[in-house]
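tokens incoming
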């Protein structure tokens, strides 16, 4: 998904514009504010429905992940690992710093997703 800077006309994928915050009504998706990497202008990104669905799914997964305690049984930890993987791959497109922090925090607390495989995944993501 591409966006264009209103001020300098820079065009890039939305992921290159730094995510700042949601504007409008967060509950119904609304739109979000992103900063132009060239001139720093704040641009509003209007999201299409597909992205709103994805956002909704991310919120649900985040809630589920937040509810898993550190002393959870193995099947829940497996589920946590699964969710962390999914959220991580969504966030490559969304670049939400707070979500990244949340994922890292949960990985530490639950002791999942810190193995070799997740590091390799992170590296693949960084190359993209
Ligand atoms: Zn610009």
């Amino acid at each position: 998904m591409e966006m264009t800077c209103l001020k300098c006309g820079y065009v890039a994928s939305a992921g290159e514009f730094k995510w700042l915050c949601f504007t409008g009504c967060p509950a119904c998706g609304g739109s979000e504010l992103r900063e132009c990497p060239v001139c720093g202008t704040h641009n509003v990104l209007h999201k299409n429905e597909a992205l709103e669905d994805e956002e909704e799914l991310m919120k649900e997964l985040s809630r589920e992940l937040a509810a898993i305690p550190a002393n959870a049984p193995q099947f829940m930890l497996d589920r946590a690992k699964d969710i962390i993987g999914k959220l991580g791959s969504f966030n490559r497109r969304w670049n939400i710093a707070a979500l990244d922090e949340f994922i890292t925090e949960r990985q530490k607390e639950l002791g999942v997703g810190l193995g070799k495989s997740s590091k390799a995944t992170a590296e693949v993501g960084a190359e993209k």
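note: The CA atoms of residues 87 and 100 lie 9 Å apart.
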